[in-house]
Request: fold
Amino acid sequence: MPRGERGRGKAMSKKIRVVIAAVLALSLLALAGCGAGQPAGGSGSGASGSAEKVLKIGSDINYPPFEFMDTKNQPQGFDIDLMKAIAQDMGYTAKFETAAFDGLIPALGTGKYDAVISAMTITDERAKSVLFSDKYFMATQYIAVKKGSSIKGEADLQGKRVGVQQATTGQTAVEKLGINPKKFDTTPDAMTDLLNGGLDAVVADSPVVLYFIQQNPNANVTAIPGNFEKEFYGIAFKQDNKDLAAKINASLKKLIDNGEYNKIYKKWFGQDAPKLN
Reply:
């Protein structure tokens, strides 16, 4: 090969190497950009990167007025509004996924969700599996019966057909009375069975019972407070996700202090929020 051809070949090879290096550099930058949008691993916030920081929220979205799907199949309810407000205060977007209530904690443990909000009562038993936020809602158990029923309190439930949503504190409360209740996937299912005559009573969280009566004024259902203990709801996290829990607790406190929590409460329950104590 003539010297001139060899020299030109070396020059061309050098140019090709420069072009390849530039392409590789651009590819690495593109990969870095994609990586920034992936969920953070470990026990961090669990949110995605700079493009859109997302909190993956698990909930049994069939428990009005806390969570339910509207006519456009979009999640609505007190829990939904509260979690959206908390996420917004943190600079995140809350993305909700529905699942059966008794499957939420196991799914949280596998990392499917960053957090769970689903009118979940804080209990010692659940606290063995999850880390709870500060309490965000106070409730108790109410007894729903048809008007004219002989049931006037929890003592009258003995020997009666009592329905509950499975894996809830309503089930626990009824079983503590020595009663084996009929278990349903959702409280609305239990209430429907009550209306159809299949049950004598349903025991469920007070705001859920009251909301059902409000939404179904012709159902001839009434609520009995009974003598059940107060309960407090919490947002659940994996036990090692203390960083996210601390951030959400800070935003929750901020919303309570600045009145935004009370606005959300009043929207769904028509009255000011009670003290959480």
